[in-house]
Amino acid sequence: MKEGILLKLLKNPTSKNKGFSHLVDLYHEKIYWMIRKMVLSHDSANDVLQNTYIRIFKGIENFKEKSKLSTWIYRIAYNESIRFLTNESKLKKVELDSNDDNYSRKLYADEYFDAENLSLKFHQILSDLSLRQRNIFNMKYFDELKFSEISKITDMNINTIKSIYYSVEKIIKKEIDESAL
Amino acid sequence: MNQHYNKLGFKIPQNYFKESKDQIINSSNTKEKSSTIKNILSIYKYPIAAIFIGSLISYNFLNFKTESFEYDQNSPIIYSIISEEDISEEDILEYFTNNLAINEIKIPK
User: Fold this and answer.
1) What are the residues whose beta carbons fall under 8 Å from the beta carbon of B86, sequence distance 6 or more?
2) pLDDT tens across A90-135, in order?
């Protein structure tokens, strides 16, 4: 379904529920994985996902269509994840530029984490990145979002995002090359 | 999304996506029903309030009108106003004496 048609359904009170069902069908897995990579555990991701849908459902009438619907949805999911991490860390604001000391602990504490089949090296590299670096890398590498979309989602300058992504890519390549030797 | 996800080792419960989708859609339907009731109330709240206030005022006004014409014509003061005749203190005293409930006055034994 095209975004324009979906928006028309969502903004019309009589067809809002139908539109919302289509929206959930289209974006459910994408939003979940985006959140999961940020909050790491499945249960936390499920909670954040529900809050994200509540915000989407309540806020759809106020969507000004300045960006794509998908970008707006990802932005809500991103902000909800940051809010969750802030509450979790009991800090006033989560430090995006510092790395998460609990990264490995959170992964291994989650029953829905397969420690057997994963690339441990990959997670080790990710855990050394700051939250900001990791989020940008994840959105580009896993979610395959455009730099312009990531810029709108994170509210950051596009050139800063490109610079962060390429520097992280370099770090990962270097680490993988070194471990292969 | 791409196949790189496999590198992360993240698992999900069986049928998670299907079940969570259904749960979210069902809860949104319930919310929509309650919000429809709220919308109806929000549209009609001012007319309902206006009707209520209007009926309250008209009820009080009618009561006021009927009560205002119920007066004791035997009262010397009212009689004097209607008839424009002077009244003496004796008339007033006599009126109140006649209207006193003598039985209610308890005389100590």
Assistant:
1) B80
2) 655 556 666 666 676 676 667 776 666 556 777 878 888 888 999 9
Dist CA B17 CA B69 (whole Å): 76
SS3 at position A115: coil
Q: ∠ CA(A149), CA(A60), CA(A156), 5° rounding? A: 25
Q: How far apart are CA A164 and CA A132, in angstroms?
A: 9
Q: Which residue of B has its CA nearest to A106?
A: B10
**Are B8 and A118 inside 8 Å of each other by CB?**
yes
User: How many other β-carbons are positioned within 10 Å of the β-carbon of residue A55?
Assistant: 15
Picking from B2, B5, B8 by the largest number of A CB atoms within 10 A of its own CB, the best residue to mutate is: B8
Please state, in angstroms and rounded to a whole number, the distance separating the CA atoms of residues A65 and A153.
14
Give the pTM: 0.66
Domain annotation for chain A: domains and CATH numbers: 3-180 (1.10.1740.10)
This complex has an ipTM of 0.74
Phi and psi at residue A68, to the nearest 5°? -70, 155
User: What residue of B is the nearest CA neighbor of A54?
Assistant: B28
Chain B interface, best mutation among A35, A57, A129, by max B CB count within 10 A: A57
